[in-house]
Structure formats: C-alpha cells, structure tokens
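Newbie here. two chains, one complex. Structure please?
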Amino acid sequence: MAVTPWEVSGRVDYDKLVKDFGTGRIAPALRARLERNAGGSNVMLRRDYFFSHRDLDLVMDDYEKGKGFYLYTGRGPSGPMHIGHLIPLIFTKWLQDRFKVNLYIEITDDEKFVCKREAEWGDIGKYADENIRDIAAVGFDPDRTFIFRDSEYVGNVYPMLMKIAKKVTYSTVKAVFGFTNETNIGFIFYPAYQIMPTLFEKGRCLIPAAIDQDPYWRIQRDIAESLGYHKTAAIHSKFLSPLQGAEGKMSSSVRESAIWLEDDEKTVRKKIMKYAFSGGRSTLEEQRKLGADLSVDVPFQWLSVLFEPDDGELKRIAGEYGSGRMLTGEVKELLAKKLNEFLAEHRERKKNVDVKRYTHTGKLAQEMWKKKYV
Amino acid sequence: MAVTPWEVSGRVDYDKLVKDFGTGRIAPALRARLERNAGGSNVMLRRDYFFSHRDLDLVMDDYEKGKGFYLYTGRGPSGPMHIGHLIPLIFTKWLQDRFKVNLYIEITDDEKFVCKREAEWGDIGKYADENIRDIAAVGFDPDRTFIFRDSEYVGNVYPMLMKIAKKVTYSTVKAVFGFTNETNIGFIFYPAYQIMPTLFEKGRCLIPAAIDQDPYWRIQRDIAESLGYHKTAAIHSKFLSPLQGAEGKMSSSVRESAIWLEDDEKTVRKKIMKYAFSGGRSTLEEQRKLGADLSVDVPFQWLSVLFEPDDGELKRIAGEYGSGRMLTGEVKELLAKKLNEFLAEHRERKKNVDVKRYTHTGKLAQEMWKKKYV
C-alpha cells in the first residue's frame, strides 16, 4: 500500500492510514452531532465513505457558538475528470448547502505543471477550463463559492505565500513528501500554495478531501498558529475503487479504470458490464449457492458510496445479491442506470452553468479579487 | 575570502573569483569595442571597476548586427541604500544612455523577506518604496525603464516562473548557493524569480551587477536555451570597499562602514575624516618621506572608482599623495567635497523624480503591465 498526494496503490488499509497519519475516525457521536447541526443525514457519512477527520469537533464547537467556519477543497487539472473526482465535491456541496458557508476551490495548475515531467502549460490550461466547468456544474452557491486558478490568483496572495514558505524548511517537505535532490524547486515550493487557502479567513477552515491530501494539512497545522490563524480541520474520504477492483484509486492514466464525466451512456454501460470487478461467482450455479462476495464487488461498492442513497434498497440488494438470488449482471445494470442518470443531470447542469459567477462575478468571487493577502 | 549573493568578506581576490566563477576578464580589445560602440569612454571601465563579464562579446555582436540587446539589474530592499548600491546603477544608466536600450530593474522584496530570519514584510515594503525612489533618481530613460517589485508583478510572470523552476533541481541550488535542510522553501524557490527578467525579451540580456550575483546567471545559462531564450550576458563590478578598509564590501548592518544616500553634508565629511582607512603614514615626517600607500587607501580608491573622473587629475593626486607631498587630510577633504556634490545632486533629482513613470505610466512600464509571460 502506498498513499501519497501523487500515488495511491495497493489495497488501502484505512485503519492503518488513520493510525499512520494520526487522524481520527469519525466516531458515531461526532457524526450524529454533524448531522444534527446540518439538519439531516448524508449518505457518504452514513456509509463511512467520509470516515476520518482532524478537529471536526472544533468546527462543530465554532458552529454551535455562532463563530462559523468555511470550506476549502481543490482539484489538480491534469486531465479530464472522472466520477471519483466529483464525489468529494458532492459531499462538499452538501456541507455548504446545510451550513451556508463560504467555499474556496483551488485549481492547482502550478502543481500539476511542476510535478509531471511531461506536462505542458497549455494543456493544463485547457484541462483547467474544462474542470472548472465540471466543478461549477456541481451546483455550489454562486455567491458563496470562489473557484480560482493558482496562476491567476497569485498576485493577490504572494506576500502571504512567502510568509508560509518562510516557515517551512526543506527538511520538512523532504520528510513529509519524500522530496529528493532531483525534485525541482517549483515542486518544493508548491506546498506553500496548497496551504494558502487555509488562511483565507480568520475563522476555522474545514477541508473535505480524500485522505491522500492530509500530509499538506500536517504542515499547515504546524505553522498556522504562528501566523495568527487556526490549525485547519479536515474531513477525509476514502478512495473510489477503480472498476477493475478494490486496489488503489481510479487512475487518470488508465482510461478504462474510470467512468469519465464525458463518457456517453453506451460507453458507461459497456465499461461497467465489461470491466467492473465482480464479487459474483463464475457460474450461475455457484452464484445461486454461495452468493456474491460483496466486500470485493465494485458495482456494489459504488452503489454503497453514493449511487443508491436509499438505505432500505441498498440492504435489499445486499441481501439478494449476497445470497445468490440476484446475479452480477442485474447489479451492473442497476449501477449503469443510476450512473447514467447522474451523468445526464451533470451534463445538463454543465451546459447551463454560469462559470463566471464562481470565478469572477459572484459575491464571494468579487470580494476575493479585491483582497490582497499580506 | 567569501563571496556569495548574501555575504562578501575578507580581502577579495578578483583574479581568483574570475577563475572560480568561470567568467572572463574584460580584455582591452573588448573594452575598446564596447566604448567604440558606445561612442565614448566610461570611468568605471577605464578604472577596471567593471572588470569581468560573460558573453559581452556576443552582446556587441548582436548590437553591431542591429539585433540589439537589453539591460537588467536589481536591488534587494532590505534597508536604505548607500553609495555602493548606486554605483552599478550609474554604470547601467551610462549603458542605457549610450545604447538606447530597455532596462528592467527587479526589486526583490520576496527574496529579502525569505532570506532574513528577522525581516518583516511591512518593513521591506517601506524600504522598497524608498529604494525605488532612489533608483528612479539615477535618471534612467523613463520610457525605456521598468522598475517592479517581485510581489506586485508576480501575476504577470507566474507560469514562466514555474517553467524556470521546473528546470532547476534542489541538487543544483544546493550546489550553487549552499542551501541546506534548514533552508526555507521560499528561499529555495526564489532563484527562479531572479532568473525571470533574463527572459523578458527574446534579444540578449546584459546584466550589470556586482560579481557576487553571478551564481544566479550560471543557473540561467544552463537552462535558458532549453526555454527558447539566450544565455544571459553579464558585466561584473568589483565591490566598493567599506570606509574602514579594503576587505569585504560596505555592509548595511554596520552603519559607519558606508556613506548612506540620506547622510547630510556634515555626516559625510565627519565619517570620511574619522573612519576612512588611510594609506598615509602616521606622522607628517614619515608621510613626507615615504608617501601614502595608495593600494590600501580608501579615499583614493573611492576617487578612482567614480568620484574623480578626470584621469589627469587622478594621476596628479596619485603622484602628490603617493610621494608624500599631499597629506591624508587633503585627500579626504577632496573626497568629502566630491561626494557631497554627488549626494546633493542625487537628493535634488530624488525630490523631483516622477517615480510612477518607471513603475507604471512610462512607455515600457505600460507595455509590461499588459504582458503575460507564459
């Protein structure tokens, strides 16, 4: 197992990650408190997809005391987006809707350029355009959301980037990210920028993101208070398995491992039918007798994470499929249908979304372009 | 002897520096060619104060072929400026006047902030304001000169900074600058920005600066062609000795070692009389008999570098003082007078200079604010 911001491979042991990273499992009481304050339940919390956190309890303290908090997440525009990229954003939207808070979404064009040897600046710019459109289509509050590219917003934050950078030694980034003598100085500097949005407001920042990003937050938490800000809080998701099986995460470099937001209905159905790793048995007879092994079944996992939000229905599927009364083909058809509905809605929103409101003309965006962080 | 961009100490052996850095002495033929193209002679060239170079011959080739070139120099705004800071700028003005070329002056507020532990961003901003005013007062062509602060111009160059940074590994900056595990990641990144202005134009860049800045140009020359630009050229000055003697360079942290641009007439005279290291003998009798040792005499050195541009007059002083007919006090009075004339003119220009033309409203400045370097 390897989990870094640039690589996730092997079968991920989430208990070990929580221990190694020093984060906390979201205990039932904390989840109940979050849902109580949110005024409702969330499928990704119930299903333990968002499973770990840092200081979520303090975020709830602040919220309950009326101090508020804000949200920050991001996207590295190294290619088109797949369904796994969208899921934490959907959870983020839920948080924003429920708590009516500001949200900052960092598009890390600089990072993607310096971390990938073959990356071209022009390509990254095109992906950034496309990704921002996909992200805006999630439907965030356009007056409480600011989507920005690092390269475009840098003029507003550079002195503060220097203040962050001055507090982080090479020794720290070497230890945290495994940087070596061969690492370029742009990549070495970049962590300062990923930390920057955690200082956008004086209130506490809560970051919904996959757990592989946590190393950045560890550095932030070492330096934030000396800069007059809170240690950031975080709520961590697991990784959505690639279609081929429950190891690593969906990879942008293996096209068949993912469902892409641009995949059409036929492609989606075909990919799921052909590639989705099944826990079903190899013959009808065995399946009827033994039932499917749900713990390795990718279609069932995807349904669990998000695509079958009805707990009763999911339980029914688990019972039928796990006992062998339902076959792999049926579960796959179910997932294909749900996914295609989801993607059709996404495409529709994407067609109509006013991207500029998120990047420039919305209330928060306008405020942010006026700000200088010094 | 130690010569790095952040420290100059000991008795500087310029022959050794030329050898260690791999630069070239400005040979008489090259100097003659430069002066011929310039249509006149320059005191700092004649007196060997600008003594070393990289590719100055190629700059002359380009000039003679009508391809032109441009100038770039800079200033780290870590405090008020002294006379030693102004001298390379005066030489730069001579080059600009003679060749009618563009000049870029980088104010490295970011560098000064990250490289000095105790530096505060607010202080650096104030020094930058004051320094820019002093620099503008040198009298550069306001339509061919752009003075910019790193923190303010970064939005126009960030993608290009990333392209530079991507080509420079930690291993390189460690070797060139002696960075260690304790160096902060802002400082590690900074060399990318000092290289940036060498890519401002497609023509060849010529950098007039003290030789301690050369390590940056070595990195630039390793990567520039792969980015589609010329290796930068440079013309290097020696260091102006501190008043107390011919070791190291004038130090911003020892106030009495320097003549500050803000020193009034009385202070200037007093400092020179009291602190300027003399090659004269300790008694009148000895001085009359042996004469002054000009090689260690600071007032004579300062007159040589710039303040007595008349070669005949300098020769006369050397003869009189070196033979003992002239006394230290007389030479010091001479220098004090020249310096005070120089500073009075500078103060007058500073009072009246339109700084905004250099930073925003001049022809080149306006063009630069419209540019995006990608």
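Moderator note: The CA atoms of residues 281 and 337 of chain B lie 22 Å apart. The interface with chain A takes residues 110, 113-114, 121, 150-152, 154-156, 158-159, 161-171, 173-174, 179-189, 191-192, 374 of chain B (CB under 8 Å). Thread marked as resolved.
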